[in-house]
Design brief:
One of its GO terms (cellular component) is endoplasmic reticulum-Golgi intermediate compartment membrane. One of its GO terms (molecular function) is phosphoric diester hydrolase activity. Its main location: endoplasmic reticulum. This is Metallophosphoesterase 1. It is a multi-pass membrane protein. It contains 12 helices and 11 strands. It has helices at about 1-45, 60-65, 85-105, 125-140, 155-160, 165-175, 205-225, 230-235, 270-275, 285-295, 355-375, 385-395, and strands at about 70-75, 110-115, 150, 180-185, 190-195, 245-250, 300-305, 310-315, 320, 335-340, 345-350. The relative contact order is 0.13. By secondary structure, it is of the alpha/beta class. The strands form 2 sheets. It has a 6-stranded mixed sheet, with helices on one face. Strands 3-2-1-10-11 form a 5-stranded mixed sheet. α1 packs across α3 (about 85-105). The protein has one domain (about 65-355): Purple Acid Phosphatase, chain A, domain 2, CATH 3.60.21. The longest helix is centred in the first third of the chain and has 43 residues, at about 1-45.
Length: about 400
């Protein structure tokens, strides 16, 4: 009889322990699934495509068909074999992959632009390391047939001007079908792709070739917009393009003294804002910036490189948006730009990704709660209910 009772008690205790362990596993799994998967849906679901002002004059179906939905991001900096720790790689690449795939699934853009510095060590990576980086990039930034991906070159992909070689440029061009001076036209909208690393102005072979392509493209666009005098003579044999003022896409920002005038929660931190920018390193030179403005008269300029957000006006009317880094390694609050664009107008909206500090806070809170539950279960910590009950009983006794 006694033996039977002891067996029953042991079975009950075993069941309680298993039940408690299952609850703990369920709790830990729920926290992990939320922080590593669901949180991206929760945050990005709140982002909405901006409305184009000019679209109010057309029907809803016509507007939907004529508006190009574009996502713009920058500076992913996929870590390489030299500086990249495996755990850092695993964490950052998972974050970017989940953010990108979630954004594609929820927002369904027509086109995605990545504004350079795709890789962190492209400027010195070996052929084998380069192939591995490309393989990981294609896995992370895979996309459906309904979406187009356009990748622009940055200084970390081919090196700063003094490190840039024909081999590195050709290697990048082969993988991403990138050419400086390339025109991409979608839904009557002209996008001009610029290799800003080659805008050094020193007459190097790559620089000369890049600038020659840009000048030729500028001539085509200006002829299409009938900006040249005596256009019948100078433009008679030129291929006509949509008469839409172009949007410039490049890695380096146009020349500005510093980020002192930049504002917003994702602008440069206060201690960095007043640090002067170095021409041809932090920003384009004044000369190169003026050339591009004069050649193309763009209606919008999109750039990266600084890892922080900024909006400036050039010539008092041409906006430039510096897109912050897409990697949590560079920022606590990464983001990307959502653009609704037509041949005559555009509207931009920023979409923030989960703040890493908030994810860390959730993990800390969950860890503390887990410790409390375990201590309470093994009776090293008095459960709050019984603690309150004891206080009440003592008060009544007094």
């Amino acid at each position: 009889m006694l033996s039977s009772s002891l067996t029953t008690v042991r079975n009950l205790l075993l069941k309680k322990r298993i039940c408690f362990l299952l609850k703990l596993v369920g709790f830990v799994s729920s926290v992990l699934i939320f922080c590593e998967f669901l949180i991206y849906y929760v945050v990005i679901f709140q982002c909405r495509w901006p409305q184009v002002k000019g679209g109010a004059h057309t029907g809803s179906k016509e507007t939907s068909a004529s508006v190009l939905k574009a996502i713009i991001l920058a500076d992913t900096h996929l870590l390489g074999e030299i500086k990249g720790h495996w755990l850092d790689k695993l964490r950052r690449e998972w974050q970017m992959e989940r953010s990108f795939q979630t954004a594609l699934w929820l927002l369904q853009p027509d086109i995605v632009f990545i504004l350079g510095d795709v890789f962190d060590e492209g400027k010195w990576s070996s052929p084998q390391a380069w192939a591995d980086d490309v393989r990981r990039f294609r896995k992370m930034f895979r996309y459906p047939v309904s979406t187009e991906l356009v990748v622009i070159v940055g200084n970390h992909d081919i090196g700063f001007h003094y490190e840039m070689t024909t081999y590195k440029v050709n290697r990048f061009e082969k993988i991403f079908n990138f050419t400086s001076g390339k025109l991409i036209t979608r839904k009557g909208i002209n996008f001009v792709i610029v290799n800003s690393v080659a805008m050094e102005g020193d007459g190097c072979a790559i620089c000369r070739s890049s600038e020659a392509k840009l000048v030729a493209l500028s001539h085509k666009l200006n002829c299409s917009q009938q900006k040249w005098n005596h256009s019948n003579k100078r433009c008679s044999d030129v291929e006509k393009l949509p008469a839409s003022e172009p949007i410039l896409l490049q890695h380096y920002p146009f020349y500005r003294k510093s980020d002192a005038e930049c504002s917003g929660e994702d602008a440069a931190p206060p201690e960095e804002k007043n640090i002067p920018f170095k021409e041809k390193y932090d920003v384009l030179s004044q000369e190169a910036s003026q050339k591009l403005l004069w050649w193309f008269h763009p209606r919008l300029i999109l750039s990266g490189h600084t890892h922080s957000a900024c909006e400036v006006l050039h010539a008092g009317k041409i906006p430039e948006i510096s897109v912050p880094s897409f990697s949590w390694r560079n920022r606590n609050n990464p983001s990307f730009i959502m653009g609704s664009i037509t041949p005559t107008d555009f509207s931009l909206q920023k979409c923030f990704l989960p703040h890493e500090s908030r994810v860390f806070t959730i993990y800390c809170a969950a860890g503390a709660l887990l410790v409390i539950l375990i201590l309470a279960h093994v009776q090293l910590l008095t459960p709050p209910f019984y603690f309150a009950q004891r206080l009440i009983s003592k008060h009544k006794a007094v």
